[in-house]
Amino acid sequence: MTSTPPSEGEGCHEHFGATPMSAEETMVTLDARGLNCPEPVMLLHKAVAELSPGQRLLVIATDPTTQRDVPQFCRFLGHELELSEEQNDEFRYTIVKGA
């Protein structure tokens, strides 16, 4: 099943798979495309707060400052930046919430 962009006022939504998953396997997606600093990190902070430890968050952004901000956010708050990549002018980050 594919995710759809968030409606106004929404920034984070569950990505549902075909089979039930544990909290560690469930991926939540934060679509921050089109938002500029500081909005992506503000939404990231809110989204991570709603996760369980070990749960993954996929962040999709178009603001190049996220290349600096997301790794620093993870480092300072004890989360794992599992993946950081750029694809088609979009920046994608997979974050695993720390304890």
Textual characterization of the structure:
The chain has 99 residues and is α+β, with helices and mostly antiparallel strands. The protein has one domain: TusA-like domain (Translation Initiation Factor IF3), CATH 3.30.110. The chain is 23% helix and 31% strand. It contains two helices and five strands; from the N terminus they run ββαβαββ. A five-stranded mixed beta sheet has the order 1-2-3-5-4, with helices on one face. Helix 1 packs parallel to helix 2 (66-77).
Q: What is this entry, summarized?
A:
By secondary structure, this protein is of the alpha+beta class. Helix content is 23%, strand content 31%.
Which band does the percent of strand residues land in?
Answer: 25-35%
User: At the third CATH level, what is the topology name?
Assistant: Translation Initiation Factor IF3
User: What Rg do the Cα atoms give?
Assistant: 13 Å
The low-confidence parts are 1-20
The name of the CATH architecture is 2-Layer Sandwich
The count of domains is 1
Q: What is the mean pLDDT?
A: 83
**What percent of residues adopt helix (DSSP H or I)?**
10-25%
Number of helices: 2
Strand arrangement, major sheet:
1-2-3-5-4
- Sketch the topology as an H/E string, one letter per element: EEHEHEE
Level-1 CATH class name: Alpha Beta
Principal-axes geometry comes out as globular
How many strand segments? Answer: 5
Separation of the first and last Cα atoms: 29 Å
**What structural category arises from helix and sheet content?**
alpha+beta
CATH level-4 homologous superfamily? TusA-like domain
Largest sheet: 5 strands, mixed
